[in-house]
Amino acid sequence: MMRLPLFEFRAPNTVEEAARILDGEGGHAMPLAGGTDLLPNMKRRQQVPKTLMSLRNITQLHQLQLSDSGSRLGACLTLSEIAADPRFRNGLTALAQAASFVATPQIRNVATLGGNLCLDTRCNYYDQNYEWRKSIGYCLKKDGDTCWVAPGSSKCMAVSSTDTAPALMALGARARLVSQRGEREVPLAELYQNDGIHYMKRQPDELLTEVLLNSSHGWRSTYWKLRRRGSFDFPVLSVAAAARFSTNRVVEEARIIIGSAACRPLIATEASKFLTGRALNQETVVEAASLASRIAKPLDNTDFDMTWRKRVTAEFVTNALRELRGDDMSGQRLLLTRHSSTDQF
Length: 345
Description:
By secondary structure, the chain is of the alpha+beta class. The chain has a domain at 59-118 and 159-338: Uridine Diphospho-n-acetylenolpyruvylglucosamine Reductase, domain 3. The protein has 13 helices and twelve strands. The strands form three sheets. The protein has a five-stranded antiparallel β-sheet with strand order 4-5-8-6-7. A four-stranded antiparallel β-sheet has the order 9-10-11-12, with helices on both faces. The two termini are 39 Å apart.
């Protein structure tokens, strides 16, 4: 049986109190929301904070405000709350879909939006118990000096595994970070960096308190996820797409995000620019999917063959864009959940 290491426990009642604790602990404390990822990591000794700081009692972090002019999502909203709320539809559909695809219903009932955004990166050599990792000499991400995915690399290649970040990046979201030094808003697209160890620009003394969204009027969005099983598994490829349409169905603005193909979600800038000013006909969709898939260069650090994951990226982008234009893709989504270890759809 894997047991938790010893730790101190704090339970602040306000954001200000939480910020003081993080500042006073000097990087040795970690926020605890749902704990669905952090606590198993602690049992495997991947993360060993001296202090856990529960966010449960901070009412402000559980608030939700949705309006035509913009929205504010507290970091401690559960993924079940987001997935079940009918207001997260049309322009915000991608977020509802991403939240609904995380793990299992039981986990979604306690897992939070902020926790999923801050989710640790994953790797076949890292996500093992302590004894297994010790037997190979550990890895660069924790306790070792070699990245076993790319032994000649000086950088950790652990992959981003968050579902909600690509969806929110496609929606143009911003994150609010609060510390004793003050607070700042960061576009979610700028919060992540391409490093498996230091994968976020959030500082240890900063608390992610809420996600901010501009108006979703005129936008449509969707989220597609590849995993071996129809539930529970982390993504090994994801595609989030959002587009704002004119009255004659021409794309006025678009965003395509490729997730779980690198240490951070990847922005398909060239593909998004290509879609602007065009209708989503077959030729446009195919070309945009081809452009978006070029940025995906997965490595052998998750489930499935990396060359196959690369190859199906264009198909997933195609499915997402077809859904944005109004095609009924329910049959294709059902097909994805029925396939497990097959090498083609």
